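re: ur question from earlier - yeah i can do the single chain one, its not a big deal. heres the input i used so u can compare w yours
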Amino acid sequence: MFSLLRTLHWHGASRSTPTAGEWPPRRSEKTPAMGSRELTLTTADGLALAGTLTVPDGPGPHPAAVLLVGSGPVDRDSDHRRIPLGVTRDLAEALAAAGIASLRYDKRGVGASQGEFLAASFEECRDDGRAALAALRARPEVDAARVLVIGHSEGAVHAAAIAADESDLAGVVLLAGMAGSGEATLRWQARAIMPTLPAAVRGLLRLLRQDPTKAQDKLFARLRASDARVIRVQGRRLNAAWMRGFLDHDAAADLPRITAPVLAITGDKDLQADPADLQRMETLVRAPLDTRLVPDLNHVLRHTPGTGAIGAYKKQIRTQPLDPRVTEALIGWATARVGARV
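and the output i got, formated as tokens:
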């Protein structure tokens, strides 16, 4: 049943995890935005993470945003070796067109970054986001008084935590974020995803008498009983340090402490971030808050008229761009916070 859990938390589902230099970070087939340049940022523990600073045309300093990617071994563009999402790449291009610079980076042990992905803890991933924010603010092309933090999925969780400790952000954007604990989110995922699995898969699970809830209980107990950074489950290596941190992290403790304006966008077909968390955010966030529940939008921010099933992601990513309702809402909100290009 661990394979089912990996399906529920699909970003980490690859059988093999890339290490630095093993595979090049994917690049868009489109012409790169003017002013894009490679840079390196240094983590709190001394690792070098490779990133891209995208700067709009025209004189600066520009308003800017840190872009935080989702979970799993994904690069600065939100691309997994098997599922090239392109979320942060497309957002960077849209922001640049609106006159907003951005910084995005390869996660530890992915693309051109140093470190080992499987050994990275949830807290280290969050601290890497803090390092990226500091690096962005220090750039001469950037107006440090007009900086946003934008996160998708896991990145949204880190964005909320970072914003809770920063009093001078211009705003924070949570794309498919959460308002509770990681454990509660994973348990909700299991309940939400099961009905969308193919009938044959659900029949096999019944035949084998495998209960996803019991499987989760067993795995969570094993994770919490271990202090190892990496463990093996059914022959596969699991980033246990990250999982423990995610399970125990509660976004409800961060959201009330945010003082910057917040935009939260989730699709009503999202099976990995509970759409009902938008309502929970409305009770938790004390700062100015704009929530958007987008009809027929799934977790990878693509339009989906069906159930939102995870099995449809690959085809949707190949055939559809990021849903323009998301980019238009984000750009409209962001330019209102930090200034618009005329």
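The longest strand covers residues 142-152. not sure if urs matches, ping me
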